[in-house]
Design brief:
Length: 235
C-alpha cells in the first residue's frame, strides 16, 4: 500500500466514522510518525511487534508526554483496526502513565489585565466571549449570528467537544461587545469572519478567523504584559 493510498483510505474511514477534523489530522500524523520511525515503511506492512517496539521507544526513550501517547495509541488503533482490519492486543493493553501536571489557571485579576490590554474590537470580543461563556477556541470562532439568542441571553454552541450541542449563558457585557464588533463588519452570517492581510473583513467569505490569528494575538498581549509562564487560549 503506497503512502498516498493508506492516507486516503484512513482519512475516508475516519470521515465515515464521524471523527472531527482535528482528530483526523492528529491520527494521520500518528501513523505518519510510525512510518518515519521505520524509514518510511508502509505502516500496513509492519508487524505487531514492530508497533510495540515503537510505542516502547516513545515511552522510555523519547519520553513522550502522556497526552502524546494517548493520541498515538488512538491513531494507531484506528488505523490497524478500522483501516487494516487487525485487532492487535498491544494497542489495547498498552498502558499510558498518568500525567501529574498541575493545570495552568489564571486569576480573575490576570484575566482582567489581558482583556484590558486587548484593544482591537475583533480580538476583545473574541476573547471576552471565550472567557465569559466558557468556550473552546474553535467553538468561539465558529459562532454565527443566528447562534446568539439575545431574548433568552444565551448562545447556542454547535458541535462542541464530542460533537454535542449545548446552550450557554450570555452575559450582557459580552452581548454588547459582540454587537459592537458586528456593527463594524456586518457579515451576514459569521461573528468572527476571516479578514484580509490589512485586517479588513471579507464580507463574502465563508471562512472564520483562523486559529493562528487569535493565538498570535494572545501571544503578543502576553508578551506585552510580561507574563513569565505560558498562557494559551485553552488556559
Amino acid at each position: 500500500m503506497s503512502s498516498l493510498m493508506w492516507r486516503e483510505r484512513m482519512h475516508s474511514d475516519m470521515v465515515v466514522a464521524g471523527l472531527a477534523e482535528r482528530t483526523r489530522e492528529a491520527y494521520l500524523r500518528a501513523v505518519r510518525m510510525l512510518s518515519q520511525y521505520y524509514n518510511g515503511a508502509d505502516p500496513a506492512q509492519l508487524t505487531e511487534q514492530q508497533v510495540k517496539d515503537y510505542l516502547l521507544w516513545m515511552r522510555h526513550e523519547k519520553r513522550a508526554a502522556p497526552g502524546t501517547l494517548k493520541i498515538t495509541i488512538g491513531g494507531l488503533r484506528f488505523f490497524y483496526r478500522q483501516t487494516c482490519g487487525l485487532d492487535w492486543k498491544v494497542l489495547e493493553r498498552f498502558r499510558i502513565p498518568r500525567e501529574k501536571k498541575l493545570p495552568a489557571v489564571l486569576t480573575a485579576a490576570e484575566v482582567r489585565r489581558i482583556l484590558h490590554a486587548i484593544r482591537h474590537p475583533r480580538f476583545h470580543a473574541y476573547f471576552l466571549t471565550v472567557y465569559s461563556c466558557g468556550l473552546r477556541l474553535n467553538e468561539a470562532l465558529a459562532l454565527q449570528v443566528r447562534d446568539i439568542d439575545s431574548d433568552r441571553m444565551r448562545i447556542h454552541v454547535h458541535r462542541g467537544k464530542g460533537a454535542k450541542d449545548r446552550l450557554v449563558p450570555l452575559p450582557e457585557v459580552t452581548l454588547k461587545a459582540l454587537r459592537d464588533y458586528w456593527r463594524l463588519h456586518q457579515h451576514p452570517t459569521l461573528l468572527f469572519p476571516k479578514t484580509n492581510p490589512k485586517g479588513t473583513v471579507i464580507l463574502n467569505t465563508r471562512q472564520t478567523m483562523s486559529e493562528s490569528t487569535v493565538q498570535g494575538a494572545l501571544r503578543r498581549v502576553v508578551t506585552e504584559l510580561e507574563f513569565t509562564r505560558s498562557i494559551s487560549v485553552h488556559c
